[in-house]
Structure formats: structure tokens, C-alpha cells
Design a protein that fits this description.
With about 260 residues, this protein is of the alpha/beta class. It has helices spanning about 10-15, 60-70, 80-90, 100-110, 125-130, 135-145, 160-165, 185-190, 205-210, 225-235, 240, 245-255, and strands at about 5, 30-35, 95-100, 120-125, 150, 175-180, 190-195, 215-220. It has one domain. The chain is built from twelve helices and eight strands. Helix 4 packs across helix 10 (about 225-235). The longest helix is centred in the N-terminal third of the chain and has 11 residues, at about 60-70. The mean pLDDT is about 95.
């Protein structure tokens, strides 16, 4: 495992923002980030976490989601918009959530106080290297559009799951795309989603076969409260990332709580 262990806030910031200059002399990261509260957690999708014969229920889940959704709640009746909306609202899917913001990932690694007895991790995947493993057909779409990653509109050449899964028959790959700006939450979180061509494909196993694509930054449990307080200082909080009364309440509950003195 490609792990970078940090001990201080300064080391964490350096590990997150050690971004080389682009040919245009800009500091633009090639990575997407995913924060998890426990470094022992892998990259299982919510669909696979259902267990049992989860493969057989993927299509019924999406079909029923489309059937019973309130009129107008899914802005466009295409597979990739429907998948994005479903993932965003908690339906088990083959997608995984990522962000382009390192500090948003750190928020999710330190937001759950019940896991403050465990080291956290930030998964960092190089999108540029990952897209080099895409089928030629999909690479051509990105080249034609001069795009860093896919939009849902650019994926319409694969209008069904069967179409998408066929692209993975010869070799596995992971595809990153920007979901539509469904609401302020998805915008404020800098949301990115990943998909693999087959509900049984595991991103953790894929990364083991391609270790140059990723690394993890390990945040020790002893550092979590300091990190959490400094994120609050930077306004990276539930209030901003989950706009509305629910997010506000979650932030206030933690902010005015007893903190690390809790027994």
C-alpha cells in the first residue's frame, strides 16, 4: 500500500498540496480525493456493501428509483444523470464519491466522532494516469472535448449499463466523471464520481494491480481533533458542505460539543 504517514497539520497540508507546476506554470492537481474515517476501510461501493446477490438487484433498484421518483426530481432521463441522482440521495449504486478538494476529503475523514479512536485515510487517485488505461473509444471522447474528465453528457455514447459494461470486456478500468450540479451540496463539495464497468469490479483490487495510480495519506487518531478544529477555522464544515438546517445542526452539535475530553 502506498501510504504517507503524517504527524502534524503542517505535514498533512504539505502532503495534500505538493502539486507540481503544469506546463502553463499553474499549480493544478491531477488527483481526486476520498476521505475515510478508518484507514482499514477499502473502496467498496454502496451496492457491494449490500452483500448477498447484489449484482441481481442493481437494475431493479435503478428501475424502481426511476419509476417511483417524484415527477421532475430527476432532471434528465438518461442513465448517467439517473445514476448521479441516485448516488447523491443514498441509493446503493456501483458509483463511489470523490472530490477535487483535498480539504473536503479531510472533512469526511474527520467528521465522525465515533471513529476518533482510529487512524483516518485520504485516498488520492491520479486521474490523468487512470484515463490512460481507458478504452481507446473513451480516450478519444476526452481528447475531442479537451476535457480533464467526463461530464454526464460526454457519456451518452453508453446509454445503458450493458453498453458501459461491454467496454470493460477486454480489460478493467475506472472512469471519473463530474455529476450535474444537482444542488448546492454537490457544488460545494466539489463532487466527482467514479464508475467501473461491472458491478462486481472492486476499485481497491484494481489499484493493487496499478499502484502508480494512487497513494494514501494517513491521519493518526491523535491528530484528528486538531485537524477538525483547523478545518472549522477554514470554514470547511457541515454548514457549508451540507447547506440547510440539517447541515447547520450537525455542525453546531459538534462545534459546541465537549470535544476530545469526552469519555
Amino acid at each position: 500500500m502506498n501510504d504517507i504517514a503524517v504527524k502534524t497539520w503542517a505535514e498533512l497540508t504539505h502532503a495534500l498540496y505538493e502539486i507540481p507546476k503544469t506546463p502553463h506554470q499553474r499549480h493544478r492537481s491531477d488527483f481526486v480525493y476520498r476521505g475515510v474515517a478508518d484507514k482499514a476501510w477499502g473502496l467498496q461501493t454502496s451496492l457491494s456493501r449490500l452483500g448477498g446477490d447484489f449484482v441481481s438487484i442493481e437494475r431493479p433498484l435503478l428501475r424502481s428509483f426511476r419509476k417511483y421518483a417524484e415527477p421532475g426530481s430527476i432532471p434528465e432521463d438518461t442513465l448517467w444523470v439517473r445514476l448521479s441522482v441516485a448516488q447523491h440521495h443514498g441509493l446503493p449504486t456501483r458509483l463511489l464519491d470523490w472530490t477535487v478538494s483535498p480539504k473536503v476529503a479531510v472533512h469526511f475523514a474527520t467528521a465522525e466522532e465515533e471513529h476518533y479512536d482510529k487512524d483516518a485515510a485520504i485516498w488520492c487517485i491520479d486521474v490523468v494516469r487512470a484515463r490512460a488505461l481507458l478504452p481507446e473509444k473513451l480516450q478519444e471522447v476526452l481528447k475531442r472535448e479537451y476535457a480533464f474528465m467526463f461530464s454526464v453528457e460526454m457519456l451518452q455514447t453508453m446509454p445503458t449499463l450493458d453498453d458501459f459494461d461491454r467496454e470493460g470486456r477486454d480489460h478493467e478500468f475506472v472512469l471519473f466523471f463530474e455529476p450535474p450540479s444537482l444542488d448546492a451540496r454537490i457544488v460545494n463539495q466539489g463532487a466527482i464520481m467514479s464508475a467501473m464497468p461491472g458491478p462486481t469490479m472492486a476499485l481497491s483490487e484494481f489499484l493493487e494491480d496499478h499502484p502508480s495510480l494512487y497513494h494514501r495519506i494517513i491521519i493518526p487518531k491523535e491528530l484528528k481533533w486538531e485537524v477538525r478544529d483547523k478545518l472549522d477555522q477554514d470554514n470547511v464544515t457541515e454548514r457549508m458542505l451540507f447547506p440547510g438546517l440539517d447541515g447547520l445542526s450537525r455542525w453546531l452539535k459538534r462545534y459546541y460539543g465537549p470535544g476530545p475530553t469526552r469519555g
